[in-house]
Every structure is written in structure tokens, then in C-alpha cells.
Amino acid sequence: PTPRALTIKLVNAFKPHLRGLASYPYRAVDAPIKLDQNESPYDLPPELKQQALRRLEGLHWNRYPSLHADEVRAKLAEGLGWPPEGLVVSPGSNLLIQALVQAANRVVDTAPTFPHYAFSAKMQAAPYQQVPLGPEFTLPTEGLSQAMKGEPALVFLPNPHAPTGRLFPASEVAVLAHQARETGGLLVLDEAYQQFSGSDHLELARTNPHVALLRTFSKAWGLGGIRAGYLLGSTEVCAVVQNFLPPFGVPAHTAAILLTVLEHPEYTRGVVQTLVAERERVYAALQEHPSWKVYPSQTNFFLIRTPDAAAAYQGLLARGILVRRQDHYFGLEGCIRVSIGTPEENTRFLEAALALPEVSH
Ligand code: PMP
């Protein structure tokens, strides 16, 4: 189903631009095989859950947690070789996106892309510009460079890109980082799917304070339900973003769980390995599909162009598989997005995909 356009009811105390603003485009649907939110299909193993619970049990629940998730920041900083003052931890990277938009003069992103950048800009009534991706979803380096001229801008760019799955070349991202420095802007590289691509932008951020990285625990770490993400950047950028988040904002239970998984990076590495191997298997198998075009992906999901997104969505759902329609986005006519699940789920998906009746137009 296409997202329901709910209208936010306005009281007079709210800013006028909020009148008629649609709610976030997502509707929950139940299905036995859930491949619609790019989550990890693997829940944390019981031993790790027990460790996290024991840690939580040892805390004083009557006391506020540290001001800025200090223990988590210290642990992340140690692992990344990054100063703790250059890290902001928050309940979900979505909140960091909102904080960044609140702080920004103006916002630029690509079309299509992760909808929360535009959604946040609309909520804030921030000046906002979208630059269309190039043919076959290539990086519009020239268009983005142009868009960065003038009033300094904050640019959101997921790399690997969502929802196309494509990893942009480092040399082109470097051009944008350079342009951010030249124009006094900030290039925010959203690394939500970084682990699945095997590359990152840590060195770029280390050498250019006009680059910041956004990361989440919701995908490779398998903690979508826990809500945690972080921003990595210069001390100055992080100090400003931190001010837009509530004090004591990362709950003690979230911190306890994060510290536990950070002590066991081998668990996440194993999950990533399995999912990447499955991604390659699914990609190869879908080459056999008579009418679907699968875009290459460096993430844990695929964007797939079908003759009819509604028919593909319904056909898969009828076989117990929930995917996400993407055909309401600019340039994504006929497209659906499918997450990589467990090997069994992927096999079921492939069987269903190849058994769908052909749609003729
Ligand atoms: N960025 C991108 C590109 C995403 O796809 C998502 C989640 N779908 C997020 C950020 C938000 O992640 P979080 O769960 O940390 O809010």
C-alpha cells in the first residue's frame, strides 16, 4: 500500500508551516517473512542478551545516565581511534538527522533518497533542495557541487546509497568533501549500511572537518529495536549537534546493550559475512528473472525494477513475504526494495519471485 497521508491536526501554538504536513511514510503490515525494513534477520544471541541484562541489573535505575552516553562514547572512540568529543550518541540516527537539520542554514540531498532528510527539513521549514541521481543511479557530482555554492549547505548523502544500494566511488565523494570545505558547508555521509560495503569514510572525515559520518546500530549490529546511532565528526560540529539533543538522552538500558555488543564485534562481523554471502546468492539467482531488473547492491537490500510494483508487492505478500514499495519515489517507477533475510527466508523469496505471474502492459 502507498503511505497513508495523515494530516497533523493543528493547534494555534504550532508553527503555520506545519498545517497539512503528512506523517512519516510508513505503515506496519504483518507477514511471516519480513523483508521490508533492512533490519538484520538475526536477533541478538541469548548469551549476549544475558550479558546486557546483567550489566543493566548492576546499575542504579533511580539515577540519570551520564550526560552524553560517556561510556559508550569512550568505547566507540577507542575502537575507532577517534576523540570522544568528536562523537555524538543518540537514540537512533533519525534523531541525529533532525538535530543536524535544526542546526543547518539549508539542506541538500539526492532524489531519490532516505525520506527522513526531506521530512526533517519540512518539519523545520528549512530551505531544502534535491539533486536527482544520474543515469543508473550514479552520483550527480556536478549537480551536488553546484547546489553547494552560495549559502553554505548541509548535504546528506548515504554511501552506500539508500534506497538504490549503490556504493559511490571514493574519488567522487572526495570531490564533494573538497567542495564542502571550499564552500564552508558540511557533507554528512550516512553510513547506515557501511559494514555491508567493506569500505568507510573514516580517513576522509579525519582529514576534513567539513565531513561528518552518520552510523546506526539498527542494521548490521542487529539492534533496530534498541534505537541507537552516532555521529562522528569534528569536535565543533559534534558540540553543536549535541546541543540540539536532550541532556541525558541515551537511556541506561540502551547504553548497557551497546557496551555489550561493542565488546563482541566478532558477532556482528559474522552476521555481516553471512548477509553479504546471501546478498551475492540472491543477486545471482535473480538474474534468471524474466522481467525484473535487480540493481547491484553493497548493502543488505536490493532495489528491483519490476513491470508493476503493486503487482509484485501483492504477489509476494500473498506468498507470505513483505517487501517495500518504492514506486512513489522520483525515478523509481515499478520499483520494490527487498531486504536480505536468513538463507531460508531468501530461498522462499526467490521461489516466490520466480513463481509470480508475468504482468503484461
Ligand atoms: N539512514 C539511512 C540511510 C537509513 O536507511 C536508516 C534506516 N532505515 C536510517 C538512517 C535511520 O536509522 P536509525 O534506525 O538509526 O534511526
From TrEMBL:
Its cofactor is pyridoxal 5'-phosphate. It catalyses: L-histidinol phosphate + 2-oxoglutarate = 3-(imidazol-4-yl)-2-oxopropyl phosphate + L-glutamate. Its EC number is 2.6.1.9. Pathway: Amino-acid biosynthesis; L-histidine biosynthesis; L-histidine from 5-phospho-alpha-D-ribose 1-diphosphate: step 7/9. It comes from the Bacteria. Belongs to the class-II pyridoxal-phosphate-dependent aminotransferase family. Histidinol-phosphate aminotransferase subfamily. This is Histidinol-phosphate aminotransferase. The modification N6-(pyridoxal phosphate)lysine is found at residue 219. The keyword Transferase applies. One of its GO terms (biological process) is L-histidine biosynthetic process. Homodimer. The keyword Signal does not apply. InterPro entries: Aminotrans_II_pyridoxalP_BS (IPR001917), Aminotransferase_I/II_large (IPR004839), HisP_aminotrans (IPR005861), PyrdxlP-dep_Trfase (IPR015424), PyrdxlP-dep_Trfase_major (IPR015421), PyrdxlP-dep_Trfase_small (IPR015422). One of its GO terms (molecular function) is pyridoxal phosphate binding. Keywords: Amino-acid biosynthesis, Aminotransferase, Histidine biosynthesis, Pyridoxal phosphate, Transferase.
